């Protein structure tokens, strides 16, 4: 379900959605997920498990078209194209979502005891890494016009929203400028509360309102709207 849409620049859209990713009716070039360093066991509640159980995708066994895991500033890899004639994806019944490639951003394990011990919180830069990865993809002829991602590190990795948002906010503010091919970024989560909280954070930082941000027209749509308006004025 679309909860909020924001246009950080002309012809660029950020969508925040809650619900079952596989039933959101999305068609994306890339699905970006997260994992602990080198750990791809399908733990319950993770996207790795969902992709395994719903689509038969063994994330850890995928061949990599691009591998930046040796770079600490990116720490990610991208698969070859999926759902090919030779190896079709077993899309679940009722699935309305499709994606062409999978990208995984790896993060170091964080000691769970530190989460609530009152120590100073630190930003988790997973979204900064995502935008760095996206900036490189056009150089390797990997399409990234439409990208979908859950709230990275928020599942089994148990990151708090407040630790994730600085990187996401910075990416929205300047990251789109560094990825000219990126036209639509979809951030989703199964839990409506998580997305509702993110909506409030977006509104806080960008001073927008849902009513004013949900309607966005492309250049062609604006021209068409102008033409219709002119025709209507001829009859008044």
Describe what this molecule looks like in 3D:
This protein has one domain (2-234): 3-Layer(aba) Sandwich (Leucine Aminopeptidase, subunit E, domain 1). An eight-stranded mixed sheet has the order 1-2-8-7-3-6-5-4. It is an alpha/beta fold. It is built from six helices and eight strands. Helix 2 packs parallel to helix 3. Strand 4 (64-67) and strand 5 form a beta hairpin. The chain has helices spanning 47-55, 126-136, 161-178, 192-206, 210-213, 219-234; strands spanning 2-9, 12-18, 27-36, 64-67, 76-79, 98-107, 146-150, 184-189.
CATH topology: Leucine Aminopeptidase, subunit E, domain 1
Rounded Rg: 19 Å
For the record, the count of structural domains works out to: 1
Estimate the mean pLDDT confidence.
Answer: 84
Question: Portion of residues in helices?
Answer: 25-40%
């Amino acid at each position: 379900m679309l909860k909020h849409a924001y246009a950080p620049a002309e012809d660029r859209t950020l969508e925040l959605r809650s619900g079952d990713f596989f039933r959101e009716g999305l068609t994306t070039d890339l699905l970006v997920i997260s994992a602990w360093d080198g750990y791809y066991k399908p733990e319950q509640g993770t996207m790795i498990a969902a992709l395994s159980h719903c689509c038969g995708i063994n994330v850890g066994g995928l061949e990599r078209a691009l591998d930046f895991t040796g770079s600490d500033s990116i720490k990610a890899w991208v698969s070859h194209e999926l759902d090919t004639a030779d190896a079709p994806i077993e899309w679940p019944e009722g699935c309305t979502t499709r994606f062409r490639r999978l990208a995984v951003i790896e993060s170091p394990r964080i000691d769970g005891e530190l989460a609530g011990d009152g120590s100073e919180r630190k930003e988790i830069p997973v979204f900064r890494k995502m935008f760095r990865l996206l900036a490189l993809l056009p150089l390797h002829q990997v399409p990234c016009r439409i990208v979908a991602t859950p709230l990275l590190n928020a599942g089994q990795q148990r990151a708090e929203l407040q630790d994730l948002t600085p990187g996401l906010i910075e990416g929205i503010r300047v990251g789109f400028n560094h990825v000219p091919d990126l036209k639509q970024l979809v951030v989703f989560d199964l839990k409506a509360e998580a997305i509702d909280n993110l909506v409030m954070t977006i509104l806080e930082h960008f001073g927008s309102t849902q009513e004013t941000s949900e309607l966005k027209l492309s250049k062609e749509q604006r021209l068409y709207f102008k033409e219709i308006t002119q025709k209507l004025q001829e009859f008044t």
